[in-house]
Design brief:
By secondary structure, the protein is of the alpha/beta class. It is built from eleven helices and 15 strands. The strands form three sheets. A five-stranded parallel β-sheet has the order 2-1-3-4-5, with helices on both faces.
């Protein structure tokens, strides 16, 4: 598209001079000139031609001079609109004022058209740069909006109603929390009713960060829930999920998963830990015990794996605290990690509290430790108490 240039000058012969000198560029469609004879006419032309990008303005004109016109143009706050001021050689005071007030460049009369041509080309380079930056800014704003929507969707697919099973409030307490490090995260938790006596629950951490991890998270969560809700064992569920995810994995992504099934009547938990942080069992007397380390690899990393499960007993008053490494690997300003020892110390103080209070206490201690340092990983917790 042609660069539209507005010439503002009360000397009529300048129109002929410009159109003659730039005739080749005009014929090729590179430049298009429009003309005004004072500042007021110039403002009218700018309304009529909102795509004007360069203004050649004389300083001394009737009705509205060039400096006043420049002030009006500045009020438009259009960084892609470049003003080149024109005045007599001896009028350096006004030229200096114009430059201080935001003019792109200046030319002196009698105008050296070769020099003016170079000045216009330089202005076009700056205009193109501004347009590029504006386009990138719009893309970033669009992406920011998309990320905000994605964050809302991601939060919406995680259970957020507590207590989740009103008919079991006197039997089991459940609470969970997920705080992404970025707009969207790769951690997730989930729980669902399998039948009257069994609840499936899971916590997981996808490799990587940001949008790729969020997409992999949504796929993994949906797959594990859809498989688990049919009532299969935890090992069968993760074996099946691994087969599908490993076959379709992009960029070698994987997910660590702890998936268990709680019998709400007797407290038995059958679980399968696929490379995830071992959860802690909190006992009413203040003892905190970690489950054995997982012997299974992460889900989606290696095809053909058959996962093994284990069994534990959750006694009345005991809680199972599951978390992602965003808790233990939370760092302060000097890059120290919160660590398992601090987490265990916190948990020892809250063994008799409700699941929500346990989560809040851990998050509070992590926040106090990091003391405003940037969050480096998603922080997710799931607590079940019998």
């Amino acid at each position: 598209m042609a660069v539209k240039i507005l010439s503002v000058d009360d000397e009529m012969d300048l129109e002929l001079l410009l159109t003659q000198y730039f005739r080749r560029k005009i014929r090729k469609g590179e430049y298009e000139f429009v003309f005004a004879h004072n500042g007021l006419e110039a403002l009218t032309m700018m309304v009529k031609h909102p795509d004007i990008e360069i203004i050649l303005s004389d300083i001394n004109m009737p009705e509205m001079d060039g400096l006043t016109l420049l002030a009006k143009i500045n009020e438009m706050r259009n960084p892609a609109l470049k003003v080149i001021m024109v005045s007599a050689y001896g009028d350096m005071g006004n030229i200096r004022q114009a430059m201080n007030n935001g003019a792109f460049d200046f030319a002196t009369k009698p105008i050296d058209l070769d020099d003016l041509s170079l000045t216009i080309e330089k202005a076009i380079e700056q205009i193109n740069y501004v347009h590029t930056m504006q386009a990138e800014h719009r893309q970033l704003e669009s992406l920011k909006t998309d990320l905000a929507v994605a964050s809302e969707i991601q939060q919406a697919i995680l259970p957020r109603v507590f207590p989740p099973f009103p008919d079991l409030t006197d039997v089991v307490d459940i609470a969970a929390s997920m705080t992404p490090a970025k707009d969207v995260g790769g951690d997730f938790y989930d729980f669902f009713r399998i039948d009257d006596d069994h609840i499936g629950f899971t916590i997981a951490d996808v490799s990587g960060k940001g949008i790729p991890a969020a997409i992999f998270m949504a796929v993994s969560r949906t797959l594990i829930r859809a498989t688990g809700i049919r009532g299969g064992s935890p090992s069968d569920c993760l074996t099946y999920a691994n087969r599908l995810l490993a076959a379709e994995s992009v960029d070698c992504m994987f997910v660590t998963v702890f998936y268990g099934i709680l019998n709400v009547r007797n407290g038995e938990i059958v679980y399968c830990n696929a490379g995830h942080n071992p959860p802690y069992v909190l006992k009413p007397g203040g003892q905190v015990e970690a489950l054995p380390l997982a012997g299974n690899p992460m889900v989606g990393a290696i095809d053909g794996i058959t996962y093994q499960e284990s069994t534990m007993q959750l006694a009345e008053g005991e809680a199972l605290v599951m978390f992602t490494d965003g808790v233990t690997e939370a760092m302060n300003a000097v890059f120290e990690e919160f660590g398992e020892q601090r987490l265990e110390s916190t948990l020892e103080e809250v063994t008799r509290l409700s699941c929500r209070e346990i989560i809040d206490a851990v998050k509070e201690d992590v926040a106090a430790f990091t003391d405003g340092a940037e969050q480096s990983d998603d922080i997710t917790m799931l607590v079940i108490k019998r």
